[in-house]
Amino acid sequence: MGQKNQVFDSVLELVGNTPLVRLRNVTAPFKGQYYAKVEAFNPGHSSKDRIALHIIEQAEKQGILKPGDTIIETTSGNTGFSIAMVSIIKGYECILAVSSKSSPDKIDMLKAMGAKVYVCPAHVSADDPRSYYQVAKRLHEEVNGSVYINQYFNELNIDAHYASTGPEIWEQTEGKITHLVACSGTGGTISGTARFLKEQNPNVKVIGVDAYGSVIKKFHETKEFDENEIYPYRIEGLGKNLIPSATDFDVIDTFVKVTDQESAHTAREISRSEGLFVGYTSGAAMQAIKQLNDEGVFGENDVVVVVFPDHGSRYMSKVYSDKWMGEQGFFDTVNKEEAQIVEY
Ligand code: PMP
C-alpha cells in the first residue's frame, strides 16, 4: 500500500488496508497519542466493504454461491452499498429490502450501484409480513441460490474484522496500541478487531460506543434486556433495540454512551480541524474519547486507536446541513455562533 503506479484488477482489491492517521488537533489537549483508522478509504467508503466481501467469499468457498445467484440484505446504509459493489464485480444480483424511512438519496445510491431495492413500510412490527425483515426472509426462501447476509446475526461479520481490521491495527501501531475505541452497531467491527488485538495483548482496553436510546450498554453491564433503555435517536449505525449475536460482549471492557447533539458537533469538528471529512458515528466515537479523557482514563504513554467508520459525504442532508442541525435544536446550547455563519 501507499506505492505509486499500482494497477488493480478490480475495486475489490482495494478493500481493507485502510490508513491509520494521527490526529493532530482534536485530541491535542489530551494525554497520549491518538490515531484514526479511516475506513472511508475503502472503495465503498466504509468499513462495511470488509464484511460484504468476506461473507460473500466465504459463501463462494462453501459452494453456496455461483455467478448469477442473488445476495439479499435488509439495509439502506453502508452495508447495502458495499454488497451492491461486491455483487457488480462478482456478477451477482443484489436485492436490498429497506425501510420507507430511508431517504430517497440513499435508495437512489443503491440503485445507482445496480441493486434491486424493495421499499417496505417503516411503521409495521418486525414480524409483520410487510416488514423489511420478513420481505428479505421470504425472498431468501423463494429465490434459489440466494444468500442472506443478515449482518446482525452472522458470525462471519466478526470474522471479517478479526481477519483484517485487527491485524492491520496491530501492525500499524507496531503492537503499541493500548486502547481501541469503536462504535457498536452490529458489533462486528469492535468484536472482531478486539478479539484479534486481545489475543496479541490481553491488556489492550476495548471501549464500545453506544447511543442514548439503545439497549447495548445496559445489556453489557447487567446481562438484562431493559426495554426502558429504548427510545428514538438520530445517529445512524450505532446502538440497537435488540441484542445482535454479531457482538462478542466478552471482548469489550466497557461502553460509553454519547448524545446525538454532541456527536454531530464532534463530527463537524473533526472535519474542520483534521481535514478528515467523516460520518456521524466518527463524531460519536471521538465524543466518547472526549468523555473518557474528562474522566482521566488516558495516560501520557497511551496509544489510542479510534475507528472512523465512514465518509462525511453520506451526511450532507444531516450533520453537515445547518438547516437540519437547526431543526434538531442542535445549535441551541452549543456553538451558537456556528449556526450564524452565512459566508459561502
Ligand atoms: N458507523 C456506521 C456509519 C455504520 O454504518 C456502522 C454499521 N452499522 C457502524 C458504525 C458500526 O459498525 P458495526 O456494525 O460493525 O458495529
Automatic annotation (TrEMBL):
Pfam families in UniProt: PALP
InterPro entries for the chain: Cys_Synth/Cystath_Beta-Synth, TrpB-like_PALP, TrpB-like_PALP_sf
Keywords per UniProt: Pyridoxal phosphate
Cofactor entry: pyridoxal 5'-phosphate
Keyword flag Isomerase: no
GO biological process, one term: cysteine metabolic process
Tryptophan synthase beta chain-like PALP domain location: 13-310
Keyword Secreted part of the UniProt annotation: no
Recorded family membership: Belongs to the cysteine synthase/cystathionine beta-synthase family.
Protein name: Cystathionine beta-synthase
Organism of origin: Mangrovimonas yunxiaonensis
